[in-house]
Design brief:
Pfam families: PKD_2. InterPro entries: PKD-like (IPR032183). By secondary structure, the protein is mainly beta. It has two domains: about 35-130, Immunoglobulin-like, CATH 2.60.40; about 145-425, 7 Propeller (Methylamine Dehydrogenase, Chain H), CATH 2.130.10. About 5% of the residues lie in helices and about 45% in strands. It contains two helices and 37 strands. It has a five-stranded mixed beta sheet, with no helix packed on it. A four-stranded antiparallel beta sheet has the order 12-11-10-37. The chain has a four-stranded antiparallel beta sheet with strand order 13-16-17-18. The longest helix is centred in the N-terminal third of the chain and has 20 residues, at about 1-20.
Length: about 500
């Protein structure tokens, strides 16, 4: 074998030598191929934009020494993850200038430049991070042209270090390109992590429920992307569409005066709850965050809700002779209830007929398994100022104080005595109160030491003459309930506001 190689290799060397000595006398014309490239020198290749809001502008420097009319352009976008590689064509212009309508996440924006004569192609990738234009803030559900819209109020009162307060309007139509039909009723963020499907694939997410008189919508909490309509919120579509209230934190909704609830990892409602003895009827006041008991307005009593069906059962009568009231037989119309100071439930009631107004302090601890005396306090507020036409209420988490409001003023009252008094009435001329919510969270960037819990009152008003809605942010002493009448914030630009809620993520 070595001998064969020895013969072949010298022969090959001779052939190469002769070839190198041959002089080509042909008459040929050569022209160097001009390059096609996207020059990135001094250019930004990484961008962060807010979905549907920020206009992303890129003016690429294309290197090409022939006629630029020969070039065609293609901009397309696709996800950086392996589960989201479908490319969407966005533009065929040389310059890119438009908002990015993609679910928040990380993407590649790819530019392809093609020479239509030679088919030579240059490709450039830009890293694009799409963020939510609606991060942590205070959601405002308001009327707009006979339908509903959502605004987001971002203020340093609840966002530590925020340099400028802002109001973001018309979030629903901005993101989803269609209207949220029906007059506004309620808005809530779910309190659990749900398994939802959006354009970025399956992921664990909270959801936002926006409820209107004709139904509403469920949305992704990060992007405000529309997920489904009111009917789609239910595993089985209700025969009658009649929204009556929602508690997103534990997943309860009232429809046609019956209660439906979510179960495990699903954001969709099941029900209605099976009828207890004597039946039941619920409304927007009937349930609260964190507790699975509801108030039956028909029979004026509390009921226990359990199971995934769900089903309702009665409380046992109080077994203490000195009980101030009985959960199984309150005998009054519930106006408002909320958990508050010392983990008690605070509930405002009125007599079915007559002027009686009351504030109950209730302990539900152990009521389900070992009924005892639930009554902590019962205060007669019938003679309290402004109470007869009060329609808005709130309760502090950090002190024995509660609040109520009528059309023109906010009042505070002790949860221990009937010492009610005016707290705030510095609203603009012609304005009437349409909703009131006490801020009951730590706040973004705040700590347990600097928490804003129960220190801020959000009050919305409406001026019928000017057709303007406003939100007041008023500082509150979380223990005494004293409200700062000298310094407060007022934000406008809304329609008539029906409800407000925290967007906590």
């Amino acid at each position: 074998m070595k001998k064969i190689y020895a013969i072949i290799l010298p022969g090959l060397a001779m052939i190469l030598f002769l070839a190198s000595c041959y002089k080509d006398k042909g008459n040929y014309s050569y022209k160097q191929q001009m390059p096609l490239a996207v020059d990135t020198a001094g250019k930004t290749n990484t961008f962060s934009v807010q979905k549907s809001v920020t206009v992303l502008s890129i003016d690429p420097k294309v290197v090409f020494e022939e006629d630029p009319a020969r070039l065609k352009y293609l901009w397309r976008i696709y996800g950086t993850s392996t589960i989201n590689t479908v490319a969407d064509t966005l533009s065929r212009n040389r310059q890119f200038s438009q908002p990015v309508e993609k679910t928040p996440g990380n993407y590649w924006l790819e530019l392809q430049v093609t020479d239509t004569v030679t088919s030579i192609k240059a490709v450039m990738q830009y890293a694009v991070t799409v963020t939510s234009p609606y991060p942590y803030g205070w959601m405002v559900l308001y009327e707009k042209e006979g339908n509903s819209e959502i605004g987001l109020l971002r203020t340093s009162d609840i966002i530590s270090g925020l340099s400028k307060d802002t109001v973001l309007l018309d979030a629903f139509e901005t993101i989803n390109k269609h209207k949220l039909t029906g007059l506004p009723l309620f808005i809530q963020q779910s309190g659990r992590m749900w398994f939802t499907n959006n354009t970025a694939g399956f992921s664990n997410n909270y959801v936002i429920y926006a409820i209107t008189a004709s139904g509403g919508a469920m949305m992704d909490y990060v992007s405000f992307d529309y997920l489904t309509d009111y009917n789609g919120m239910f595993l089985s579509k209700p025969a009658v569409i009649k929204p009556g209230g929602i508690e997103g934190a534990i997943g309860m909704i009232a429809n046609d005066r019956k209660i439906y609830s979510t179960y495990l990892i699903s954001p969709y409602f099941t029900g209605p709850a099976l009828e207890p003895n004597k039946g039941y009827e619920v409304d927007a006041t009937s349930f609260v965050a964190t507790d699975y008991n509801v108030y039956d307005q028909k029979n004026m009593r509390f009921l226990i809700m359990s199971g995934s069906d769900p089903f309702l059962t009665e409380f046992q009568p109080a077994n203490a002779p000195a009980a101030l009231f009985d959960l199984s037989n309150i005998g009054k119309v519930l106006q408002f209830q909320q958990n508050g100071y010392n983990s008690y439930r605070y509930a405002f009631f009125k007599d079915p007929s007559g002027n009686g107004r009351y504030l109950y302090t209730i302990s539900f601890a152990g009521q389900n398994s070992n009924p005892r005396n639930p009554s902590i306090a019962k205060i007669d507020l019938t003679a309290a100022p402004g109470i007869q036409d009060a329609g808005f209420f709130a309760v502090s988490d950090r002190g024995p104080v509660a609040f109520y409001a009528n059309a023109g003023a906010v009042y505070k009252t002790s949860t221990l005595t009937n010492s009610a008094e005016l707290a705030f009435d510095r609203f603009g001329a012609g304005e009437v109160i349409t909703s009131m919510k006490l801020f009951k969270a730590v706040g973004s960037g705040y700590t347990s030491a600097t928490t804003r819990n129960s220190q801020l009152m959000f009050v919305s008003t409406w001026n019928q003459a000017s057709k303007q809605g406003f939100v007041y942010v008023i500082t509150v002493n979380e223990v005494s309930g004293q409200m700062n009448t000298a310094s407060f914030k007022k934000f406008g630009g809304f329609g008539k506001i029906a409800d407000m809620s925290l967007k906590a993520n």
